[in-house]
Amino acid sequence: MNGTIPAPTIEYALLAPMLVVFGAAIIGVLVEAFAPRYLRSAIHKPLTLLTLAGAFVITIWQARTGIPTTPSAMGAVAVDGPALFIWGTILVLAFVSVLLINDEGHFVASAAAVPGSAEEERALTEGATHTEVYPLVLFAVGGMLLFPAANDLLAMFVALEVMSLPLYLLCGLARRRRLLSQEAAVKYFLLGAFSSAFFLYGTALLYGYAGSVDLAKINTALGSVGGQDTLLYIGVAMLGVGLLFKIGAAPFQAWKPDVYQGSPTPITALMASGTLVAAFGALLRVFWVALGGLEWSWTPIMWGVAILTMVVGAILAITQTDIKRMLAYSSIAHGGFLLIGVVALGNNQQQNASALSALLFYLVAYGFTTVGAFAVVTTVRDAGGEAWHLSRWAGLGKRRPLVAVVFSLFLLAFAGIPLTSGFFGKYAVFQAAVAAGATPLVVVGVVSSAIAAFFYVRVIVLMFFSDPAADGPSVVIPGGTWAVGAVAVLATVVLGVFPQPVLDLAHTAAQSLFVR
Amino acid sequence: MNPTTGPTLVDFGHDPLWLSIIKAVFIFVVLMLGVLFGVWFERKLISRMQHRYGPNRAGKFGLLQSVADGLKMGLKEDIMPRTVDKVVYLLAPVIIAVPAFLAFSVMPFGPMVSIFGVETPLQLTDLPVAVLLVLAMASIGVYGIVLAGWGSRSPYAILGGLRSSAQVVSYEIAMGLSFVAVFLAAGTLSTSEIVAKQAGGGTWDVFGLEIPQPSWYAISLLPSFLIYAITMLGETNRVPFDLPEGEGELVGGFHTEYSSSLKFAMFMLAEYVNVFTVSGVAITLFLGGWRAPWPISIWEGANTGWWPMLWFFIKLVLVFAFFVWVRASLPRVRYDQLMAFGWKVLIPLNLAWILLYATLKALRVPESNKAFILTLGAIIVVGGLAIWFRFDTLLQRRREAKAAQIEEEFEQLREEPEAGGFPVPPLDLPHYHGVLPAGQASTAVKEVTSGSN
Amino acid sequence: MELYVPILVLAVLAAGFAAFSVSIAPFTGPKRWNRAKLDAYECGIEPTPQPVGGGRFPLKYMITAMLFIVFDIEIIFLYPWAVAFDSLGLFGLVEMVLFIVTVLVAYAYVWRRRGLDWD
């Protein structure tokens, strides 16, 4: 009783980006609680942007002062090269998404009111807005930062929940098409809760197998613990389901189109970029660090998942008539391409590093392009909100050539056409996979890229070679969306024409692989 | 066991099964008799407070009144309404009664005694998490309330059940928080050890003066005790917090449909046993447990052998008398007042007190960094006050706005000539058939038949 | 484990008594059938038909339930901290202050949004 429990050592400086984001989120809640209604938005916008920028600066500073080679915070968080690279990526993508969120008219006036009811009408006329969006986004971003950096499964689970819960809520806040938005939120919440349960159950089984939730210790146990393989395999499968769900890999992709469609488009942009990056970071860390020694067991399954994901994503995208659903299926297909990189794990450190750097580059390239694409979606509007149906996009190239050209650029980047960022992303990942002996997978990847290119080009054709409808949608580009579009175009072109600096950066970050 | 402070956790778990059964039966019998006595005692005491005699026909001083009531309850017709959810309806009384008894299993009645040659503490059992067991049982009791309301399938019952459970869970938080200071002081959750810690206070050294510390936590942790005393009334749905049974609005609350017979007796039983439980917790955690208070404790043998059980039951009767006293003195509060008091006053006060006490306790550790702790304490106090003032001004503003609005409405009513200065309902309400307001065409009024709104 | 056996004994005793009382209740009293007696009691008016499955109830109760969970979990974290306060020392105090402050931020938000008001 009288013995003292030693206080844990926590490297606050290393965790600073996360702490800054979480701290700002809590300040945001206080602003919600105490600031008068007319001031809230004016406080939130600079606060959120400054926080994300500040966290990014700290991340850069950390990367320059030297990357630690041991896990921090008593082994709970690993701030290593890949983690810092992913942090930087997420923070920039979140910054850009927040610029998109800042523009008026994306969020509902009163989420609790029944759609079409008198309360909703009253909230609209009063000019009420849910400025809670900002703290929620910050909480979600904080979770995204912790998720790929978590070095034990419990910290990872906490991060998963901190990341997901605000997103569930944000999904239901779209201003237009309320019922669709609420449906999306409920679907995402139920399926997400289910996948969290899978993750937690897998964690419990792996703990039962290895006697630890620490990723490195699980890896050590792979070689030393015998006779409990059932526990191990079921645990790995459950954990895999939980992680693959967050990526939206087939056969766990069903939520993605519905949720991407129903959510407010800026939130879709955040989810499609930030969440995907964070989830891939976590997936890589779990499968490479904790289960690296089990490679022969999970690689064939991951092959199957990757093939299925690419094919399902590419083929189902063809049949879509809704632009947001099409982009969602495209995101599924890209998840499949990224999974090719995950299976490119070999025994050679150099080869692993090049696979990792290829994945990191792909994530950056895809993240910017997808934010840009969703930003364009927000600008094309009908009387009832954004025009999602593809037929409404017909002839856009004739009425607003610039918007159409920008959107075409993003679609070409998705397709992986040379001189866009998507080309080098795919090229690097495929090259790493070939080096690891996954050539059949690469063949499937190339074929599904070709299928995907078909529907991307179809939209371009629709925009430029159809006649515009007489009552076509109008194009409204608020200031923030302008900036987002410009940044995304710049990133897509620069990474496509002159990718070397970022490739080098990714290579440096991946050089030492994940810390153990 | 320490001969001066009584049994601790290591003294438990050695009883043979027959001894556990004897103890369990003893507790069961004591609680059953206690309920009979409690009903009589409450009625008698409150009668004297109201200048009445109370029950005085059945037996000497009416002592057999509650026995007679119990028998009558058993001989009444058992009514089960047609609409109820049968399984839930029958299960609810059991669910509410069983945890009420179980909470008593960790209540310490006295020190080590010899029963048929076995040295054993006068307590059924003790756990490292004993107080948690009491709280857990209180939480399970809420299921009984909710299920009784839900299974009855009648508006009164379901509203009563919801209200009651919302009230109980709200006060449970304040109750749980009020224990934290006790655990900080005692460093344990085991009931027997908490009693042992209250055996004798140390001394405070204030400028060279040796001031004896009070040993009861009720004195040294007075804020916690006051909050607990309030929450135990709320937790057991007693006056002034007996909203669930607000006869005027909800008939019997969640047990409206348990109109007679032994099923209703279970609810009655659980209510009284719960009162005994919270009283027992108050005694154990705050009032020195089974230990004799000062004038008696001068006598050497007061805290040994079987005597402490007597002190415990005397304390129990006194705390129960407090319940009755409160019932005789205070009116019932409104529901919004009840919830506001629980959530907006008790919880923040409690948290502030816990932090303050922890800071003081940290200050007493010799090697700690005093400047840092004081800064921390100052920040807590200043921050708490700042938020409080901000709330206070806001609430004040809101209250004034509300008062102005009421005043305005009142003015408006006064100006109407037919109202004569008194707020009476207008004579042209739509459900007064046939009478149309002057100047209104008959087609403009849609007739609403009575009873539908 | 021996610590829990006596609780089990008392539980069997109490459950047996309660189940016995509830199950003999129909046999000890008279039976005089009357249609109105078997209706739900609503002070004499025709019983309101209750929707299948219980229907809806005010959202307020759900907010209370959620807040209860938040604070109950806070209490569960406070108990071990309080018991081990002497061993944890200053670090424990600072961490607990941070934890309580974080919960209080949410609490202040709920308060300001009238989540604690009943009408």
How would you characterize the overall build of this protein?
The complex is a heterotrimer of chains A (516), B (453) and C (119). In chain A, helix 5 packs parallel to helix 11 (265-290). Helix content of chain A is 73%, strand content 1%. A three-stranded antiparallel sheet of chain A has the order 2-1-3. Chain A has one domain (16-511). Chain A is globular and about 70 Å long. The longest helix of chain A is centred in the middle third of the chain and has 33 residues, at 178-210. The two termini of chain A are 34 Å apart. With 516 residues, chain A is mainly alpha-helical. The mean pLDDT of chain A is 90. With 453 residues, chain B is mainly α. Chain B folds into two domains: 74-367, no CATH class; 369-413. Chain B has helices spanning 17-49, 65-74, 86-102, 130-152, 155-186, 191-197, 217-220, 222-235, 247-250, 261-286, 294-297, 307-329, 335-364, 370-415, and strands spanning 110-115, 118-122, 203-206, 209-212. In chain B, strands 1-2 form a two-stranded antiparallel sheet. In chain B, strand 3 (203-206) and strand 4 (209-212) form a beta hairpin. In chain B, helix 1 packs parallel to helix 12 (307-329), helix 3 packs antiparallel against helix 4 and helix 4 packs antiparallel against helix 5 (155-186). Chain C has 119 residues and is mainly α. Chain C has a single domain (2-112), classed as Methane Monooxygenase Hydroxylase, Chain G, domain 1 (Up-down Bundle), CATH 1.20.58. Chain C is built from three helices and no strands. In chain C, helix 2 runs antiparallel to helix 3. The model of chain C has no long low-confidence stretch (mean pLDDT 85). The interface between B and C is large, with 98 and 70 residues. Chain C: This is NADH-quinone oxidoreductase subunit A. Chain C: Belongs to the complex I subunit 3 family. Chain C: It comes from Microtetraspora malaysiensis. Chain C: It is a multi-pass membrane protein. Chain C: InterPro entries: NAD(P)H_OxRDtase_bac/plastid (IPR023043), NADH_UbQ/plastoQ_OxRdtase_su3 (IPR000440), NDAH_ubi_oxred_su3_sf (IPR038430).
